């Protein structure tokens, strides 16, 4: 089951439905040694683009790697993924991204879910997102409060673990390399919760450094900018 599998992932490659993909690029991802592919993004997301990327990825990868979707938008809800990550933005400026959009999604899909007798427990993995790059599309969309001290971030982590019992805390710096010092401090406060780090990892050195503290490293942009580096980034994350 995906709920158990993700706990062993050291490296995730995130593919954005709003970008152009070739089969060759996805093949490069498959052979990089990454542990899983997550399809997700913030801007320009449509059902058609998400379904197409899922189909292309499945064609190349088959069942050799888990393929998950991150539900950042109603249109990303497409059948056929191995699991679905659900971001809960802990530092969002509005309850919409903490619970509102989630409730609306279930309103739209509850009939189908009941009809198909789907066990959501087996498919959904909630992620406690803390968005820390104010210029990222995710921060802008959720009006995230990114002016946080280490103590503020630690308190969100404690809430995520002990109040909401979230299995993942995701420190999201999307597009920018974050603070290693913050990640190391947060790591000391995550017990029994998986710490994901994503943002600005474009070199093996950065992957190595952040993987010392984060349980799982997520990379996105580098796949499109320098796909030839992906393999060495994965190796460094797993060193
Ligand atoms: C984005 O955390 C991921 O959601 C990865 O960030 O694109 O900066 O690698 P980058």
Q: Can you tell me the CATH topology?
A: TIM Barrel
The CATH superfamily is: FMN-linked oxidoreductases
**Strand/helix succession:** HEHEHEEHEHHEHEHEHH
* Beta-strand content bin: 15-25%
Bound ligands: SN-glycerol-1-phosphate
Which CATH class is shown? Alpha Beta
* Tally of separate domains: 1
> How can the largest sheet be summarized?
8 strands, parallel, barrel
Contiguous runs where pLDDT drops below 50 for at least 5 residues: none
Report the CATH architecture.
Alpha-Beta Barrel
Q: Mean pLDDT, as a whole number?
A: 95
Q: What general form does the structure show? A: globular
Let me know the number of strands.
8
The total of helices stands at 10
Strand order of the largest sheet: 1-2-3-4-5-6-7-8
Distance between the termini: 26 Å
Q: Percent of residues in helical segments?
A: 25-40%
How large, in whole angstroms, is the Cα Rg?
Answer: 17 Å
Briefly note the structural class of the backbone: alpha/beta
Set out the fold topology.
Elements: H1 2-5, E1 11-15, H2 23-30, E2 36-39, H3 47-61, E3 67-70, E4 83-89, H4 100-116, E5 124-131, H5 137-142, H6 150-163, E6 168-172, H7 180-187, E7 194-198, H8 204-211, E8 216-219, H9 221-225, H10 230-237
Parallel strand pairs: 1-2, 1-8, 2-3, 3-4, 4-5, 5-6, 6-7, 7-8
The protein binds SN-glycerol-1-phosphate.
The site of SN-glycerol-1-phosphate (1GP) has 13 residues, from strand 8 and helix 9.
């Amino acid at each position: 089951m995906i709920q158990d599998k993700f706990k062993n992932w050291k490296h995730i490659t995130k593919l954005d439905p709003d970008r152009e993909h070739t089969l060759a690029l996805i093949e490069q991802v498959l052979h990089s040694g990454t542990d899983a592919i997550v399809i997700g993004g913030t801007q320009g997301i449509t059902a058609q683009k998400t379904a197409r990327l899922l189909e292309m990825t499945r064609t190349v990868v088959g069942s050799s790697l888990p393929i998950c979707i991150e539900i950042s938008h109603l249109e990303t809800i497409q059948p056929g993924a191995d699991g679905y990550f659900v971001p809960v933005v802990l530092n969002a400026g509005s309850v919409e991204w903490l619970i509102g959009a989630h409730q609306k999604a279930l309103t739209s899909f509850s009939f189908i879910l009941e009809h198909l007798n789907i066990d959501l427990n087996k498919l959904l993995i909630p992620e406690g997102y803390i968005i820390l790059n104010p210029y990222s599309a995710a921060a802008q969309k959720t009006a995230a409060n990114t002016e946080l001290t280490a103590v503020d971030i630690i308190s969100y982590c404690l809430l995520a673990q002990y109040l909401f019992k979230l299995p993942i805390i995701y420190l999201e710096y999307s597009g920018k390399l974050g603070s290693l010092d913050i990640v190391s401090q947060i790591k000391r406060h995550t017990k029994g919760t998986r710490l994901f780090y994503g943002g600005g990892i474009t070199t093996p050195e950065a992957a190595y450094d952040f993987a010392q503290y984060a349980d799982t490293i997520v990379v996105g942009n580098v796949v499109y900018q320098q796909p030839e580096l992906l393999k060495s980034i994965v190796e460094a994350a797993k060193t």
